[in-house]
Amino acid sequence: MALVAGIDSSTQSCKIVVCDATTGKVVREGRAPHPDGTETDPAHWWSALTTASSGLLDDVSAVSVAGQQHGMVVIDEDGEVVRPALLWNDARSAGAAHDLVRELGGPQPWANAVGNVPVASLTVSKLRWLAENEPHNAARARGVMLPHDWLTWRLGGARGEPTTDRGDASGTGYWSPADGHYRPDLMIQAFGRELDVPRVAAPAEAVGLTPEGAVIAPGTGDNMGAALGLGLRPGDAVLSLGTSGTVFAVHDRAAQDPTGTISGFADATGGFLPLVCTLNAARVLSATAAMLGTGLSGLDTLALSAEPGAGGLVLLPYLDGERTPELPHASGSLHGLRRDNMSPENLARAAVEGMLCGLADGLAALTESGVPVERVLLVGGGARSAAVRAVAPIVLGTPTVVPPAAEYVAIGAARQAAWTLAETAEPPAWTLGAPEEESAPATDVGAGVRERYAEYRRTAHGV
Ligand SMILES: Nc1ncnc2c1ncn2[C@@H]1O[C@H](COP(=O)(O)OP(=O)(O)O)[C@@H](O)[C@H]1O
Ligand SMILES: O=C(CO)[C@@H](O)[C@H](O)COP(=O)(O)O
């Protein structure tokens, strides 16, 4: 039995699965935490990967990395990292993003060029921030990579040509998903000169060998990894609740949304992955639980004993600023407080509802853009919450399914590794198993919740 490994190097941790290459059955798993913060020395990712994979990889035939998207890893002439990587959730590049949009004549030219309107998260905005704020580091820069590109290169011994894939390249802001080409003009616009960029490998191209002789697959971004791990089909959307909240679906054409709500990403198979991302997801739940002096299961119990609508309490959960809507410097706020609704139960419920409302808006944007959605698959750490599972179909107004609990980003990377090993036209046909939970048909009970949320958002933030 050939074994393959998938690595999910995400914001909070590194998770590794080793799978049977033919069936996808997970035979071993490992994990290790990443440090907190919005900038990280990539050496920490390597050290977490080494810890998480200890004793796991000796007999694997192929390996692949799916990583948190957009992070800016700048390297010098000798391949050394110039400064800690700025991560997708670092908002200091918000002003740089606005400048880039203005300089190109507004959002539409960006949407047309690269399928994305720059926000703080995109690598292109981070490059502008670096050029303007750390000229000494900018002067040392020779090349720029994404987190998964850097880890893939390290797995091969940090020798030879760095590579990336369509999925992760589509989150840079200087690669066009529609044309499949880099846009050096936009890199120069942002940074003042060209930097070396990784070659974009084909979806199942072998890009190297580990020192132990395992084939290295191209890897991808974490959301593209989840899509591959879930074997996503048209009609299915994914709602992933990790550090970020994302809602996405596979599609046959590149999105070019000038409002900036939808990121027009590519996927890891040659198709497209329109996606909406919020900055505040599972950590809204842990922060609210801590504030209420309880844990995550205590929060579930409280939220499930409140009525839908939380008695009129509305949490705008922009605790770390927000990406969608674009409010990088916002903070969270609680609205609709009255003496008769100020209970821990309503606050817990408002946290779950508020976190989901932004993603319900994202789902609506996807369907309005022509992406068909019949049901929503709930994944990521936040999908373990019983309250989230109960409230999601109400707020989304769409049937939801909870696939068997698993690390789908890592499984997607493992599936890509198996595909690369097999050298077939299509990825291997791995199956998921029976869902843990399926919601009752959706109702319109959540419409009022979403409307109140939108009203307070408009009043507080004008968007
Ligand atoms: N039962 C649960 N209820 C709510 N949140 C949970 C639960 N279990 C895990 N989480 C949250 O999920 C998050 C981790 O999810 P994960 O998808 O691994 O994130 P990431 O990929 O961003 O590192 C953490 O913020 C954690 O608190
Ligand atoms: O920026 C995005 C998507 O555009 C995020 O989804 C990152 O890819 C980080 O993911 P998680 O760590 O939350 O899984």
UniProtKB/TrEMBL annotation:
A GO biological process held by the record: xylulose catabolic process
EC number, UniProt record: 2.7.1.17
Domain Carbohydrate kinase FGGY N-terminal: 4-210
Class of this enzyme: transferase
Domain Carbohydrate kinase FGGY C-terminal as annotated: residue spans: 238-420
Keyword Thylakoid: no
Reaction(s) the record says it catalyses: D-xylulose + ATP = D-xylulose 5-phosphate + ADP + H(+)
Matching SUPFAM superfamilies: Actin-like ATPase domain (SSF53067)
Region (Disordered) location: 157-176
Site, Important for activity: residue positions: 8
Molecular-function annotations in GO: ATP binding; D-xylulokinase activity
Keywords, in A-Z order: ATP-binding, Carbohydrate metabolism, Kinase, Nucleotide-binding, Transferase, Xylose metabolism
Protein name: Xylulose kinase
Organism the protein comes from: Nocardiopsis metallicus
Gene this chain is encoded by: xylB
